[in-house]
């Protein structure tokens, strides 16, 4: 009696996640071999098995009642591999043009009224940021414009992480309020 039949016969007592984990672990090599037999590299096969696991982890109940978990997992992985090959071929055709061809495509320009609305929103946003208290403005600018994380900002300004979070929340709320008043 192999593990798949043991797992299936006891699937009522195992939760679905446990069933998925055991099935993938027991049949990993077979699943990978099945995918590789369809022309995928070793690394691509491992990625496909990983993708299969992630997909089944979202709905592990699918495995319940399967007569052959190994067969089901191999077929599902092969199908994912086929989908991946199709997608790769499609993307190769889609992006096979030259850069000159891409530059020849006219760019869509924003309508003048849209551009004016964006500029008006930027003016309001700049004023809202300027109206913030000095420390709050510094935290907001360091985070949003310079891309610093809250821990880096806390260290740089010598304030607590909680205070950084509070400043960010309040600054964002202030800016959003100003933008909503505009609408």
From TrEMBL:
GO terms for biological process: DNA-templated transcription initiation. The keyword Transcription regulation applies. It holds the Pfam family Sigma70_r4_2. Keywords: Sigma factor, Transcription, Transcription regulation. Residues 124-175 form the RNA polymerase sigma factor 70 region 4 type domain. The keyword ATP-binding does not apply. Transmembrane segments: none annotated. One of its GO terms (molecular function) is DNA binding. Residues 24-89 form the RNA polymerase sigma-70 region domain. It comes from the Bacteria. NCBIfam families: sigma70-ECF (TIGR02937). Belongs to the sigma-70 factor family. ECF subfamily. PANTHER family: RNA POLYMERASE ECF-TYPE SIGMA FACTO (PTHR43133), RNA POLYMERASE SIGMA FACTOR FECI-RELATED (PTHR43133:SF63). This is RNA polymerase sigma-70 factor (ECF subfamily). It comes from Enterovirga rhinocerotis.
């Amino acid at each position: 009696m192999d593990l798949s039949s043991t797992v299936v016969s006891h699937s009522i007592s195992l939760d679905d996640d446990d069933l998925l984990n055991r099935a993938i672990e027991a049949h990993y090599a077979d699943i990978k071999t099945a995918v590789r037999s369809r022309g995928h590299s070793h690394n691509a096969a491992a990625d496909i098995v990983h993708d299969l696991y992630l997909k089944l982890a979202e709905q592990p109940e699918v495995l319940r009642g399967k007569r052959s978990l190994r067969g089901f997992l191999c077929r599902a992985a092969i199908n994912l591999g086929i989908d991946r090959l199709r997608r790769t071929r499609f993307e190769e055709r889609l992006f096979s043009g030259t850069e000159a061809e891409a530059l020849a495509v006219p760019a869509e320009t924003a309508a003048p009224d849209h551009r004016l609305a964006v500029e008006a929103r930027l003016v309001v946003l700049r004023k809202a940021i300027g109206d913030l208290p000095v420390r709050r403005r510094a935290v907001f600018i360091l985070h949003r414009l310079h891309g610093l994380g809250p821990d880096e900002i806390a260290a740089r300004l010598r304030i607590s992480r909680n205070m950084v979070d509070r400043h960010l929340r309040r600054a964002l709320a202030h800016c959003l309020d100003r933008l909503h008043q505009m609408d």
